[in-house]
Amino acid sequence: MERVLVVGAGISGLAAARLLRDQGVHVTVLEARDRLGGRTYTSNALGLPLDTGASWLHGLKNNVLMNVAQELGLSIDVTEFGDTTIYGSDREEDRLLDEIEDELETAFFERAENRDSEETVAQAMQGLPEQFGLSEQQWHHFLGVTIEADWAGDVDDLTVAALLEGEEPKGGDATIRGGYVQIIEHLSAELDVRLNTPVLLIEHRSDGVLVTTKSEQFSGDRVVVTIPLSILKTGKPTFSPPLPDDHQTAIDGLRVGLLNKVFLKFPKVFWDAEEAFFTVQNSQRGRFVTWMNLYLTTGEPLLVAFNAARAAQDVEYLSDTETVDEAMNILREIFGSNIPVPMSYQITRWGKDPWSQGSYSYLGKGSDPKMRGSLSKPVGSRLFFAGEATHSEFPASAHGAYLSGLRAASEILSMGSAEK
User: Fold this and answer.
1) Where are the domains of the chain?
2) Going by C-beta distance under 8 Å and a sequence separation of 6 or more, which residues neighbour residue 11?
3) CB of 26 within 8 A of CB of 1?
4) Residue 37 and residue 188: Cα distance in Å, rounded?
5) Which CATH entry fits the domain spanning 3-43+179-255+362-419: 3.40.50.150, 3.50.50.60, 3.20.20.220, 3.90.550.10?
6) What's the burial of 304, exposed, middle or buried (CB within 10 Å: 0-12/13-18/19+)?
7) Whole-number pLDDT of residue 180
8) Four-way CATH pick for 78-166+259-349: 3.60.150.10, 3.90.660.10, 3.40.190.10, 3.30.460.80
9) CA 20 to 30 Å from 382, out of 99, 142, 185, 330?
10) How far apart, in Å, are the Cα atoms of 225 and each of 129, 174, 409?
């Protein structure tokens, strides 16, 4: 029986391992964390399941994970992104920005399609705020909500190519009631997963592979590496022989963005209970701009604020108290000084997480869309790669990660059949 090692128990690693196991391959999954899921993590810290990392099914008509959710009988909540109120210092300005936002977004992406793909978003959009009569604060609000919150990269580095890459999600978006953990548990069922097992060295040779961890060595016929791009950028694990130039160039050239969440649980709802989102214009660019009303989907008085790109990096260095205080100051400006304080909170810091060091990949200055394809290629017949950064059609997504795992597993199965 062929033996395959899978490094990483995120959604891509589990997808690969599950398909291989179902085809009769002996699979061992090595995971550095003390839990499954990687950047797909459902936490119960606030007394109910909340997705602290990946949380959406993007594109319900062309998302393979939607099929998985249906097979498992999971309930979903469709997200109405258009159901949003803009708050700021001037209600008339808020109303005007709300009225032109769709037109502005259309003009934004039309301009992107006609610009040099290597230009940064900031460069490509020069003059657009003046064309629409936007103040600096309004323009930063638009960039924070529409661009940085989606791509998790700063507009001074994010390129036009990033906006245009991949296949467009179709059919709207939804969250999974009960969280992504249900899909993770399904994929990991009956798999041999070794937790708390960070990999230090991967030796890929003509006769097999040898993977060294802190405590032991694992041998196999092939290995699938699903370690996040951000960790590969640190030079860990070591590969022997070293990776080919195309792979290393891709690792160096692709960027890793950051998106964090601040969950606040209150004793009662004091915001519009029927509205899915509200956004805030404030003087600190990008910080606590987008808020989602989780009461709609959980029935609990919960809000979650999103911080992305540079704002997320800055907020990660605040203490919990400072973070909650900043969030509450913004809420008080909108809803009044008498709103209740949160009973509990949860703050994500994916950039400081040693096993993620970021959220998901994007194309920045010096990146090339072809780098994703380069990183996805097998090295010989022993070393394979998967993960959201390796998927060209659906990068930076849970279903892209899932599909990349299936692709790596299929490559192994094809090679195994050819060698028999």
Assistant:
1) 3-43+179-255+362-419, 78-166+259-349
2) 37, 38, 40, 54, 180, 183, 184, 187, 398, 401, 402, 405
3) yes
4) 9
5) 3.50.50.60
6) buried
7) 99
8) 3.90.660.10
9) 185
10) 43, 29, 11
| Per-residue pLDDT, 105 | 83
Q: What is the pLDDT of residues 126-150, one digit of tens each?
A: 998 899 888 888 888 889 998 999 9
CB-CB contact of 1 with 22 (8 Å)? no
Q: Quick one: DSSP state of residue 158?
A: B
- Give one DSSP letter per residue of 246-307, joined into a string: HHHHHHHHSEE--EEEEEEE-SS--S-TT-SEEEE--SSTTTT-EEEETHHHHSS-EEEEEE
- Rounded to whole angstroms, the Cα distance separating 102 from 94 reads 14
Strand boundaries in 76-126, DSSP class E: 76-79, 84-87
Q: What is the pTM of this model?
A: 0.95
CB neighbour list of residue 134: distance below 8 Å, 6 or more residues apart: 97, 104, 142
306 is written with which tokens?
């999103």
Report which residue type is found at 217: Q
Dig out the tokens for 234 from the structure: 């640190």
Helix (H, G, I), strand (E, B) or coil at 397: coil
N- to C-terminal Cα distance for the chain? Answer: 12
Residue 75 CA, distance from chain mean position: 21
